[in-house]
Write a structure and sequence with these properties.
- Helices cover 79% and strands 0% of the residues.
- The protein is built from nine helices and no strands.
């Protein structure tokens, strides 16, 4: 059942993504409204897919590449929809939905079989670690989308070639503020995710860090990158283009690490 719901999600997200991208061209409110409805319908299918898989598996379904991809995609859409409640920014959907859809498309090529949970993963630390780490990554992903929009808007202004896209994007000040707000929430969540993972590892192997584990080394690298970004902004007063580039690069590192090393099995 969870696989059928997954494909319904994939279909809804595909059409919604086309609609959000079309909105960039036509800027018609009905196009955006229809895309949003389709995205919400897809999100409900997505949620049902994850819940159904949880009931069928009997554990938090994030232990295979298929599961981790759909879970990360689900959180990205959840954060996007939460942002939309407070800030009506249809253009953000043109950046977020392709990302969420891309993860689902990659998941579609992975094994969808539910396998017995490895005894080392059978721990209450699994859901705690995963929720904090993935939610932190999702917020950093939304922040990176705001940063990408900032870079595009700044380039338009610098070249003084004011076109249709300029009027679709929020101001640089708004984009900078929203990007920072997402990081200010996402980074602490990522930190807790890393800490819970370290405590979990300690209970299994007797040490907080396994330097031979690529996931842990990459996670520390990502943490220091964002710590440096926040330090530069809060202490050194960095703003604008430099911070935006660091933000985009930081999430690209997260994404590459996630795709190469995700997650526990298969």
């Amino acid at each position: 059942m969870n696989v059928q719901l997954f494909y319904l999600t994939l279909l809804a997200y595909s059409v919604a993504t086309i609609g959000y991208l079309a909105y960039l061209i036509w800027v018609k409110k009905p196009v955006w409204m229809t895309s949003r409805v389709l995205l919400i319908i897809g999100f409900l299918f997505h949620t049902a897919s994850i819940v159904t898989r949880y009931l069928e598996a009997g554990y938090t379904p994030v232990t295979s590449r298929f599961e981790s991809l759909i879970f990360f995609s689900w959180l990205l859409v959840a954060v996007y929809l939460a942002v939309q409640i407070r800030h009506t920014l249809p253009v953000l959907g043109a950046f977020m939905t392709p990302l969420a859809l891309g993860l689902l498309l990659m998941a579609s090529f992975r094994s969808k079989e539910i396998v017995p949970l490895d005894r080392l993963l059978d721990s209450h630390w699994l859901p705690a670690h995963v929720w904090f780490a993935f939610l932190g990554d999702a917020l950093l992903g939304v922040s990176a989308c705001f940063a990408a929009m900032y870079l595009i808007q700044e380039t338009i202004l610098k070249k003084k070639k004011i076109g249709p896209l300029y009027y679709r994007l929020p101001s640089l000040e708004v984009l900078d503020r929203l990007s920072y707000r997402c990081i200010s929430i996402g980074f602490p969540l990522l930190t807790v995710g890393i800490l819970t993972g370290s405590i979990w590892l300690k209970s299994i192997q007797g040490g907080y860090i396994d330097w031979q584990d690529g996931r842990q080394t990459a996670s520390l690298l990502i943490w220091f990158l964002y710590a440096g970004l926040l330090h530069g902004r809060l202490i050194a007063g960095w703003r604008g283009r430099r911070i935006a580039w660091m933000n985009v690069i930081g999430f690209l590192v997260i994404l590459i690490t996630f795709l190469q090393l995700s997650h526990f099995q298969q």
